[in-house]
Design goal:
Layout lengths: L24 E8 L8 E3 L15 E4 L8 E8 L3 E8 L16 E8 L5 H4 L5 E3 L4 E4 L9 E5 L6 E7 L6 E4 L6 E3 L3 H5 L5 E2 L10 E13 L7 E8 L4 E7 L7 E10 L8 E8 L8 E11 L10 H10 L3 E4 L9 H5 L25 E2 L15 H7 L3 E6 L5 H18 L4 E5 L16 H23 L7 E5 L8 H11 L10 E5 L2 E2 L9 H13 L2 H5 L15 H4 L5 E4 L3 E2 L8 H8 L4 H14 L45 H12 L3 E4 L6 E8 L2 E8 L5 E6 L8 E7 L13 E5 L5 E3 L2 E6 L3 E6 L1
Parallel strand pairs: 1-21, 20-22, 22-23, 23-24, 24-25, 25-27, 26-28
Antiparallel strand pairs: 1-6, 2-5, 3-4, 3-6, 4-5, 7-10, 8-9, 9-19, 10-18, 11-12, 11-13, 14-17, 14-19, 15-16, 15-18, 29-30, 30-31, 31-37, 32-36, 33-34, 33-37, 35-36
């Protein structure tokens, strides 16, 4: 699910504002202690690069070694990685003598501050920027949570902040004359010819303002008794919505809510950035005059869902019918529990209404992962619970290395509450992600065992112990995941050994396991007609999953070697696939060719091939296909429609909604067939088949990996026979995609099913995925 997106296609929430509660940001770093530490100082072998004094006031937590769980406050920091500390406590907050830490011990520091990245006067923080130095994030006042927006109007002048959307453009689409030919804006003349254009809509507006909307916020005028405190708002887009309103604030020094209802007028041709401006003024100069704003909302006037997410998001997810929702973005990996979930006692989801205070999204700020693309704001991970329940999925949450012992207990308590409230059959907790990729909140590769493995084992022990105490009847539903990435020889074994060496072995049960990311990648440049290129890419991509997720002794996950991923985990442990699907981008293929290879019609079937083969591994219960919403990834010359299962979440414009790419349609067909327990099938050459049985009724998912139709008969044991069949079809030919058309779609299988006793006969179209069900 990654994060909410203010500049592109990932418009998830009913509230269009990120960091709507103006909470202070967090920044985190993982210290690897150098030699020569004392009981009041240490050095960092992985210096964060921060300036002198930056980390002063940060809260530190020892995560590995003999002092694991101890906490202290950073009292001094010198650029280059030298720290002093004091005010030491044990894991439960009791005062202790400060520890002298051994070399290579992991210590996380989390700084919570308004001034991270220079506040909004120096940077864009969660989408917000100040027009001048008189506006800033502040903790001097708050309607709820810890922070608000403070506008200093003591000089008698007006001062403003602004927030913008829809800055990211798509490179590619289809030609206007046929809705089939892939194209890019840069090459639309040569791609489409003549006066035809390259259709990239529906992409602007990504965040449409159409119909009944409102702007709402809480404000407090402080030290404004002799003035006329006022807040003015303006929302405009070139050729689209253009509204403004002024609020005279109640001048009594208290918080009040202000609401303005309006009608959004965006159209499909409203091309341009959407910009919101909020201006504070007092009419005259007055010492200390400040206007505080909190819990700001821009969205529909009434709740369209109870989850806090847009109805379009729910429609899209319900169509795909996902089994799990995974919450992860690297921007979240450097924060604590309150930065991920929201403050203690906050309400997941929508609360009492779209502009009601107290929700978790109002009560956590932006995250800054040592400058890794931040400071960016993400919706609360606590919101995943009501969202998963609404679409009948289970939650998969990635927690962070900076979690303290108290954070782990709070997280476990909240997860217990979610299990009780929503009766999830399972929940999945992953400890960080991809420790080897170099961001400075993760353990370096040389410390995967003694660092990451040791912390993961200990963290799982803390959470599982707490869950057993807090929700004993539900604790067995929680599954714990140590990270990996596709056939990294020895990584899993090192992590498991590190956990055991630290005294917290990973149990060899089905509650524990690891994960992999099989990326189906190719960057070849094919030749010939569009049809010929599409067929060549289909053949190529159908050959990619087997070497990764193929049967025992073939695919690298279960090659039979002790160094394969299955060979490193315990005999009862699981191995989930957390990312699958296309991942190729860059030369020599062009953007147009990536649309043929990764977003064309056959992608529905070769993606499904990977899903089914992954399940056939035997201990791989959950698979996810990259991100939900994404336009293109890569540079302008070779941008690829990879990772994103849907092009956008805009139901107001474009072809019939939801706007699914073929990979999502393939998942829709497969998931509709997964109705119960999995049963293996001896499939004919050129096919991959999985069967399922629920309450005596059979269903199956089938893939034809060849360029020719295949007629086959499936013999089912006793039970109710499948009656219905659906597949993914194209309108014009193999080159069809769904980028700005309805050319690729899910429909009834041509020819249907022929049922005789316990036998079902059907014909699989070329390069197809078929689902048959009661």
């Amino acid at each position: 699910m990654v994060g909410n997106d203010f500049d592109g296609a990932g418009d998830y929430l009913q509230n269009l504002f990120d960091n709507p509660g103006f909470e202070p940001s967090t920044d985190g770093h993982l210290i690897i202690v150098g030699s020569g530490a004392t009981s009041s100082s240490l050095t960092d072998t992985r210096d964060s690069g921060a300036a002198t004094d930056y980390w002063v006031g940060a809260q530190a937590s020892v995560r590995t070694g003999a002092a694991a769980g101890d906490q202290f406050t950073i009292t001094g920091f010198t650029s280059g990685g030298s720290y002093s500390f004091g005010d030491c406590e044990n894991a439960t907050g009791g005062a202790i003598s400060c520890p002298t830490l051994a070399a290579n011990v992991g210590v996380t520091v989390v700084l919570t501050s308004d001034d991270i990245a220079g506040n909004i006067a120096a940077n864009v923080i969660g989408g917000w920027a100040a027009n001048d130095g008189n506006s800033a994030l502040s903790t001097a006042q708050a309607y709820d949570g810890k922070g608000s927006l403070a506008i200093n109007v003591a000089d008698g002048n007006s001062h403003a902040v602004h927030y913008g959307w829809d800055y990211t453009l798509s490179n590619g689409g289809v030609c206007s004359d046929d809705n089939v030919t892939p194209c890019t804006i840069a090459d639309q003349s040569s791609d489409c010819g003549g006066s035809n254009t390259c259709l990239i809509a529906p992409q602007i507006p990504w965040h449409p303002i159409k119909g009944s909307f409102e702007i709402a916020f809480y404000a407090l005028a402080s030290n404004t008794s002799s003035g006329s405190p006022n807040v003015a708002v303006q929302l405009n887009r070139s050729g689209g919505v253009n509204v403004s309103h002024s609020f005279a604030l109640t001048n009594d020094g208290n918080w009040h809510q202000y609401v303005y209802d309006f009608t959004g007028t965006d159209t499909a041709t409203s091309i341009g950035n959407l910009v919101f401006t909020l201006t504070g003024s007092n009419g005259s100069a007055q010492t200390g005059a400040t206007i505080y704003v909190d819990d700001i909302y821009l969205g529909k006037t009434s709740a369209t869902t109870a989850t806090g997410f847009r109805s379009e998001l729910l429609t899209t997810l319900q169509t795909i019918n996902p089994g799990s929702l995974r919450f992860l973005t690297y921007l979240s990996l450097a924060t604590n529990d309150s930065g991920l979930e929201g403050l203690a006692g906050c309400t997941p989801g929508l609360g009492a209404g779209p502009d009601a205070p107290g929700t978790c999204d109002f009560q956590h700020g932006a995250q800054n992962t040592n400058g890794y693309g931040g400071p960016a704001w993400l919706f609360s991970s606590a919101d995943m619970y009501p969202l998963a329940s609404a679409v009948n999925a289970v939650p998969w949450i990635v927690i962070d290395n900076p979690f303290t012992d108290a954070d782990l207990i709070t997280f476990a308590n909240n997860l217990c509450s979610a299990l009780s409230t929503y009766n999830f059959p399972s929940a999945w907790v992953e400890m960080s992600n991809e420790e080897w990729n170099g961001t400075q909140i993760k353990y370096p590769g040389t410390l995967l065992g003694s660092g990451y493995g040791a912390e993961a084992g200990r963290n799982f022990n803390i959470m599982s112990t707490q869950a057993a105490s807090q929700c004993p009847s539900l604790a067995s539903r929680i599954h714990y995941i140590v990270g990996n990435q596709m056939c990294n020889s020895g990584v899993i074994a090192g992590e498991i050994q590190g956990a055991a060496a630290a005294g917290y072995p990973i149990p060899n049960t089905s509650q524990y396991g690891t994960d992999d990311a099989p990326y189906y990648s190719s960057s070849t440049s094919e030749s010939g007609s569009l049809e010929e290129q599409a067929a060549a890419y289909a053949t190529l991509y159908f050959g990619v999953p087997p070497p990764l997720v193929g049967p025992a002794g073939t695919g690298c996950i279960n090659s039979g070697s002790q160094y394969s991923d299955y060979g490193q985990i315990g005999s009862n442990n699981f191995l989930n696939l957390y990312e699958t699907g296309p991942s190729g981008y860059g030369s020599p293929a062009t953007t147009e060719q990536y649309y043929l290879s990764e977003a064309g019609f056959p992608a529905a079937a070769w993606q499904s091939e990977g899903f089914l083969m992954g399940q056939q591994l035997g201990r791989t219960p959950i698979q996810n296909e990259f991100d939900l919403a994404q336009i293109e990834f890569g540079n302008a010359g070779n941008a690829a429609p990879i990772w994103g299962m849907v092009h956008d979440l805009d139901a107001d414009f474009g072809p019939a909604f939801p706007h699914l790419r073929p990979t999502a349609m393939g998942e829709e067909v497969v998931n509709s067939a997964i109705t119960g327990a999995y049963y293996p099938v001896q499939a004919p050459s050129g096919t991959v088949i999985n069967a399922y049985k629920n309450a005596g009724a059979w269903s199956a998912a089938l893939v034809n990996t060849t360029a020719s139709p295949i007629t086959l008969t499936v013999a089912f044991p006793a039970g109710t026979m499948p009656q219905n069949a659906e597949t993914v079809l194209y309108t014009n030919g193999m080159a069809d995609n769904s980028e700005n058309s309805n050319n690729v779609y899910v429909a009834d299988l041509p020819g249907g099913l022929s049922i005789s006793g316990q036998n079902v006969t059907l014909t699989l179209p070329p390069y197809s995925v078929v689902g048959i069900k009661p």
